[in-house]
Amino acid sequence: MKSNFIQRTITGIIFVAVLVGGILGGPVSFSILFAIITALTIHEFGNIASRQEGVQINKTLCMLAGVFLYFGFAYLGIAPGESRILIPYLFLIIYLMVSELYLKRKNPLHNMAYTMMSQMYIALPFSLLNVLAFHTSLTGSTSEYNPILPLSIFIFTWVNDTGAYCTGVLFGKHRLFERISPKKSWEGSIGGGVFCIIAAAVMAHFFPFMPTGVWIGLALTVVVFSTWGDLTESLLKRTLGIKDSGNILPGHGGMLDRFDSTLMAVPAAVVYLYVISLL
Predict the structure, then answer these.
(1) DSSP conformation class of 145
(2) Is residue 218 predicted with pLDDT exceeding 50?
(3) Which among 41, 69, 150, 187 would be 20 to 30 A from 266, CA to CA?
(4) What is the distance between the alpha carbons of residues 145 and 43, in angstroms, rounded to a whole number?
(5) What is the rounded distance in angstroms from the CA atom of residue 103 to the CA atom of residue 113?
(6) Residues 197-210 pLDDT 10s
(7) pLDDT tier, 171 (very low <50, low <70, confident <90, very high otherwise)
């Protein structure tokens, strides 16, 4: 038990250090880090999807498509308006769909579904991190890299998870979603939200490029959607009959286990910030 705790702690510290370092290191390290994370997460998803009877997806091409989508969004961040960069990605997706007509596999519809899920559930959310990281100038011709917004999503997610766990252990009585995750409680979720509001106030103090109210709104958006993201992955694992999505992170499971909350929080954060900018 003690050795497992030490293992989890060491892995957690390294994981956070790599993530924070990659984001703060600049646009190159940011892009390389999350391109690798995208590929590894899609590969892991392909492994667990293929455990279903008759399911056989092209993991290599799914990974390639996901990475291409990610770099496509990164390029759009650097060179706004150059949407033609995504045309090869569309050809890859078309090929993955059409190829099922000729491969004569046992369950082509499931193959198509899992293939598209690898893109919508994993590749697209990671790609949208670029929308948070790169901000177009007023002229629309140039952009600049700001690591704080993508980093804040992870900070709010970590604060929410820690606050929800501590509050849930101390005060949790009412189950949040017992059918899927018996340990989560309403008290824990509320506690996580309170801790995130405090974290948002701290972020607003040190990074006042957004008003405090907008920071708090972003934090609460992450709280709600990261919780749904966690529950979505729990539903996925229960459906597939697995405990962890993988074992690449000793003591913490797989990539999906670590990024499940982020996969839903990032798109929600992008939508929230777009809506705020329109108001």
Answers:
(1) E
(2) yes
(3) 187
(4) 28
(5) 16
(6) 999 999 999 999 99
(7) confident
The pLDDT tens digits of the residues spanning 233-248 come to 888 888 888 887 777 7
Any idea what the Cα angle at residue 265 is, between residues 13 and 47, rounded to 5°? 70
Calpha distance 167→29 (Å, rounded)? 35
- Angle at which helices 148-171 and 2-24 pack, to 10 degrees? 150
Whether 165 and 108 have beta carbons less than 8 Å apart is answered as: no
3-state secondary structure of 96: helix
The DSSP result for 214-251, as a single string, is: HHHHHHHHHHHHHHHHHHHHHHHHHHHT-S-S-SSBTT
Q: Tokens 């995750």 — which residue?
A: 181
Q: Are strands 181-185 and 175-177 parallel, antiparallel or unpaired?
A: antiparallel
CA atoms within 13 A on the CB side of 117: 16
From 57, 38, 37, 39, select the one nearest 47 (Cα to Cα): 57
Pairing of strands 134-136, 143-145: antiparallel
In Å, how far from its chain's centre is CA 65? 17
